[in-house]
Recover the amino acids of this structure.
């Protein structure tokens, strides 16, 4: 930093400043290398899980692609049913081209000009943009057609299958530090005391505690690594001595309520991501297929016998008469850190996989809803007029129906029809999409004012005056100003989505068993709240309250941190101190 | 004194000098009301014509809301012109679309009024100034950086400000950044929309000087929009005075300031405080507010407030107070004609209940209560009041115009049906133009009438 400062006094021909980020790293590679080595070490420790994650990402991408790929055919089938085969074919082709075109619009900008120049046409700027989109659409449709209608498709799916299979194989073969193979906590008591099959012969409770502790330690290390990265970039590679982001981070670090929220949200996310590691029994054995999996235990006669989970669960229910409370073993030597549910399943397993469900639904719903809201608010505030009116009408129409009622209605319609999107997560994905559909008008309303305001700023006019494209103007000059608002409303609403999901499941409408969900736990435990099995409803209840509060606190803190006017005096001081 | 021999419009001066850069002809910019029922646009710019010569600074002055900013924005195609043409080196830029417009935009840029709002706070100074270069794909990224740094130097900032953010700068510095961005594409023509009105007086001078230096260095042509007349007098070669979407007078600065021809220019200049306490002429106070640009008056746009409005010969000697009353009366009737009465109000009126419209009698009393009105005039006024009271506003106005109207109100002297508008009269050898009937040979000149009536 000091070298650059001395350079900068020489005038504007300073060579140092004109270097790209890549060059700056090349010049001083050590800090970046150390930091990347940290990442490599962290990834290596959890290599098995990393591949499992990759495999899951493949699954999600595959599902999405298949969903989109099935749209043209299903539209075509519907049309063919009423208008005949030829019309159906035309409808299929049209839908396919439309979908392909919609996909190309956001990515066509990054296609190099050379791709169009080979056409040999003398194109204007606008013409070139459309030519790129047309080219991309053509390529996409051609590839899709090849896969769908020719033998290439078979080879392609074989290839995909090989890749996913390879990833899955790697995921199960490679070790990870938090795997239950390495630190096993399932085993049985030996007749003469001690445990068989657990990690180092420790009790399942101790083994589980070690594994869970490792998970959180690992996640914390990852967080530290991220923070280090920011600091390394700031001290070694960033050209500016100070940017507004520094202040944002500083304000956030001093907001204790926000930090509390952050910690809880962090715990919640870790719980969801590492659900297989923190659950004392495997969800597949205990919840999804309890009658297909056996385990061994020491029975009252002092013999090691074998039984299925479904039978053991029946005997370990917490239903008022019979209670397996928190921090105890059930009658089969299975460790239940949070007790069991009213159906005898392990509460901790249920809670961590339920966190996964909630997180997936919350993030999908808010992510999608916020995306719709931001895009529409940018379009409607930039173009105004008819675009604005159309958006107002659409959002008013949706908001005219009470949200919860609308969600129930749509969810029942799709579930009764057994629609393919009602399959994943036993209705969880469907619920997420419905939430996105029902909640975007609210978010759009919330950011409409700010986006109209920013669209009236003179810098938007200035951008227009030198010919900036509308899309770029919206992205560079308008979107950053509403990003803060959408972050806040998003993080506030995510709590609402989580609690609504729980509420719907509580009513038996949201997510069907066996997919774990917190609302169902509360529903199951509500009649035992005054008995010794009080924990069944109380623990997930407290968890929901905590998570929702935490998301709200985090949202508030983000808002305060982003707002540059939150502490004018201090930032003035920082300004005076910063700079060359 | 001006010569009003040749009546001429800018169109007649066909032999425009070869160094004309921007040629504006009958330009109109209307804003739609957005209402579905009534189609009465706001006439922000209502038919202006003028030339801007290469290398000159043309000032554009006028009170707020007269359409000067809209005119400036139309010249660089930030607003779409409703009618007329803007010839930029011979090309009509109002007809440019898509790529042609994008290419042309390099030639004309704008410096905005509010330095707080014209710079995106989330971008560094470097990014802000670089953006026009990025948009137009100017050379290589490294060249762009160099250019931005030399621009920063050019406008009196230092190159290390590249990585700072706008809110670390003062208003004057922010305006310099805005100017640097404007210069990035090497434009020939720059619209300066009140570039200093948001700044401290001490900073204003610095920015003005900077603008003058840059003009010399880069051969820039400026359209300088302002309402601060002293700044205009300092920087501009020629000045156009605008009122209600029309240019009232346009000509060389010094001439226009020392010897205004148009009554509106007179009024505007009389508002400049004079350091000499013994200065002879009083300030001309204009009555009322500028008319609603949605409903401009017929005839001359300034007729409703003009201190030297032409009066019919037989009423020439009427008391000024009575004339004031008559003018006010006309405005109120026009206002009543426009106000749409709700059904509820019609019903209330029917039953003699109070409505939000004062009765015409009250108005009449207020206007003429304590002035001595000659009998014959009073007779006419009573007729008018009666017609207005019966909601026959058009009839009332017609009667009023027939008696008191003049060429200024669009009443043709020969009694033609179409309202007449003033013409541009060449009022000096330098080609200064003024939009006023007073320059016609048959009327007395503004100056004498002003002295007469004051």
């Amino acid at each position: 930093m000091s070298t650059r400062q001395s350079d900068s006094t020489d005038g504007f021909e300073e060579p140092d400043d004109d270097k790209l980020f890549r060059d700056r790293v090349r010049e001083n590679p050590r800090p970046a290398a150390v930091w990347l080595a940290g990442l490599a070490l962290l990834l290596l420790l959890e290599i098995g899980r990393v591949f499992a994650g990759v495999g899951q990402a493949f699954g999600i991408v595959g599902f999405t692609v298949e969903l989109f790929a099935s749209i043209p055919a299903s539209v075509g089938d519907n049309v063919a049913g009423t208008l005949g085969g030829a019309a159906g074919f035309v409808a299929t082709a049209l839908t396919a081209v439309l979908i392909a075109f919609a996909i190309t619009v956001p990515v066509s900008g990054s296609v190099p000009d050379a791709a169009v120049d080979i056409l040999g046409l003398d194109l204007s700027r606008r013409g070139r943009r459309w030519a790129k989109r047309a080219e991309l659409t053509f390529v996409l449709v051609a590839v899709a057609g090849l896969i769908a209608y020719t033998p290439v498709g078979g080879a392609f799916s074989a290839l995909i299958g090989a890749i996913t299979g390879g990833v899955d194989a790697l995921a199960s073969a490679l070790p990870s530090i938090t795997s239950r193979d390495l630190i096993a906590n399932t085993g049985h008591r030996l007749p003469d005391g001690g445990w068989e099959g657990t990690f180092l012969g420790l009790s399942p409770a101790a083994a589980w505690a070690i594994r869970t502790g490792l998970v959180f330690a690992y996640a914390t290390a990852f967080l530290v690594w991220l923070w280090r990265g920011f600091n390394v970039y700031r001290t070694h590679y960033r050209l500016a001595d100070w940017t507004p982001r520094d202040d944002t981070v500083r304000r956030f670090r001093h907001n204790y309520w926000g930090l509390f929220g952050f910690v809880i949200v962090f715990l919640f996310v870790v719980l969801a991501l590492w659900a297989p590691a923190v659950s004392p029994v495997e969800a597949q054995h205990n919840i999804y297929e309890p009658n297909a999996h056996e385990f061994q235990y020491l029975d009252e006669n002092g013999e090691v016998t074998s039984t299925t989970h479904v039978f053991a669960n029946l005997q370990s229910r917490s239903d008022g008469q019979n209670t397996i409370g928190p921090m105890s073993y059930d009658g089969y030597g299975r460790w239940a850190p949070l007790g069991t549910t009213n159906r005898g399943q392990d509460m901790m397993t249920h809670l961590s996989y339920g966190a996964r469900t909630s997180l997936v639904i919350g993030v999908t719903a808010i992510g999608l809803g916020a995306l719709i809201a931001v895009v529409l608010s940018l379009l409607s505030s930039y173009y105004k007029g008819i675009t604005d009116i159309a958006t107002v009408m659409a959002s008013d129409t949706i908001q005219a129906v009470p949200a919860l009622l609308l969600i129930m209605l749509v969810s029942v319609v799709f579930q009764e029809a057994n629609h393919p999107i009602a399959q994943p997560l036993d209705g969880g994905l469907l619920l997420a999409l419905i939430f996105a559909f029902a909640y975007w008008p609210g978010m759009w309303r919330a950011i409409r004012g700010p986006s109209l305001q920013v669209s009236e700023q003179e810098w938007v006019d200035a951008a227009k005056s030198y010919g900036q494209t509308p899309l770029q103007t919206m992205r560079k000059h308008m979107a950053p100003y509403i990003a803060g608002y959408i972050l806040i409303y998003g993080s506030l609403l995510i709590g609402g989505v989580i609690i609504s999901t729980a509420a719907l499941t509580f009513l038996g409408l949201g997510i069907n068993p066996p997919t774990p969900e917190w609302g169902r736990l509360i529903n199951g435990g509500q009649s035992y709240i005054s008995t010794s099995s009080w924990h069944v409803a109380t623990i997930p209840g407290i968890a929901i309250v905590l998570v929702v509060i935490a998301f709200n606190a985090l949202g508030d803190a983000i808002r305060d941190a982003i707002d540059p006017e939150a502490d004018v005096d201090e930032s003035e001081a920082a300004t005076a101190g910063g700079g060359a | 004194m001006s010569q009003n021999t040749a009546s001429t419009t800018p169109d007649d001066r066909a032999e425009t000098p070869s160094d004309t850069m921007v040629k504006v002809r009958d330009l109109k910019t209307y804003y739609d009301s957005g209402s579905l029922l009534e189609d009465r646009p706001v006439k922000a710019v209502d038919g202006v014509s003028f030339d801007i010569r290469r290398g000159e600074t043309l000032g554009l002055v006028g009170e707020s809301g007269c359409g000067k900013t809209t005119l400036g924005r139309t010249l660089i195609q930030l607003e779409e012109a409703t009618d007329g043409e803007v010839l930029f080196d011979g090309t009509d830029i109002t007809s440019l679309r898509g790529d042609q417009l994008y290419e042309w935009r390099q030639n004309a840029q704008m410096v905005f009024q509010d330095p707080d709002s014209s710079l995106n706070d989330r971008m560094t100074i470097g990014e802000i100034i670089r953006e026009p270069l990025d948009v137009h794909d100017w050379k290589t990224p490294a060249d762009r950086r160099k250019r931005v740094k030399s621009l920063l130097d050019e406008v009196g900032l230092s190159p290390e400000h590249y990585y700072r953010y706008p809110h670390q700068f003062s208003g004057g510095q922010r305006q310099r950044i805005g100017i640097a961005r404007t210069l990035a594409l090497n434009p020939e023509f720059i619209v300066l929309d009140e570039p200093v009105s948001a700044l401290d007086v001490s900073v204003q001078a610095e920015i003005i000087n900077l603008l003058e230096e840059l003009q010399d260095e880069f051969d820039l042509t400026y359209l300088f929009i302002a309402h601060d007349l002293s700044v205009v007098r300092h920087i501009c070669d020629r000045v156009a005075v605008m009122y209600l979407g029309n240019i009232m007078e346009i000509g060389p600065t010094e001439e226009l300031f020392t010897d205004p021809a148009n009554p509106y220019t007179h009024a505007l200049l009389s508002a400049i405080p004079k350091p000499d306490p013994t200065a002879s002429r009083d300030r001309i106070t204009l009555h009322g507010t500028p008319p609603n640009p949605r409903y401009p008056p017929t005839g001359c746009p300034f007729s409703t407030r003009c201190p030297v409005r032409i009066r019919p010969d037989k009423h020439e000697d009427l008391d000024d107070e009575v004339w004031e009353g008559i003018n006010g009366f006309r405005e109120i009737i026009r206002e009543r004609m426009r106000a749409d009465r709700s059904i509820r109000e019609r019903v209330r009126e029917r039953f003699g209940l109070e409505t939000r419209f004062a009765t015409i009698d009250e108005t009449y009393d207020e206007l003429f209560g304590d002035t001595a009105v000659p009998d014959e005039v009073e007779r006419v006024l009573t007729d008018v009041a009666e017609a207005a009271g019966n909601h026959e506003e058009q009839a009332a106005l017609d009667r009023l115009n027939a008696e008191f109207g003049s060429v200024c109100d669009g009443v043709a002297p020969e009694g033609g049906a179409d309202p007449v508008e003033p013409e541009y009269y060449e009022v000096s050898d330098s080609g200064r133009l003024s939009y006023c009937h007073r320059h016609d040979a048959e009327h007395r000149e503004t100056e004498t009438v002003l002295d007469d009536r004051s």
User: Anything to note?
Assistant: Chain A touches chain B at residues 8, 11-14, 17-18, 124-127, 239-241, 243-244, 457-459, 461-469, 472, 476-477, 480-481, 564, 575, 579-580 (CB under 8 Å). DSSP finds 23 helices and six strands in chain A. Residues 47-173 of chain A form one domain. The longest strand of chain A covers residues 294-298.
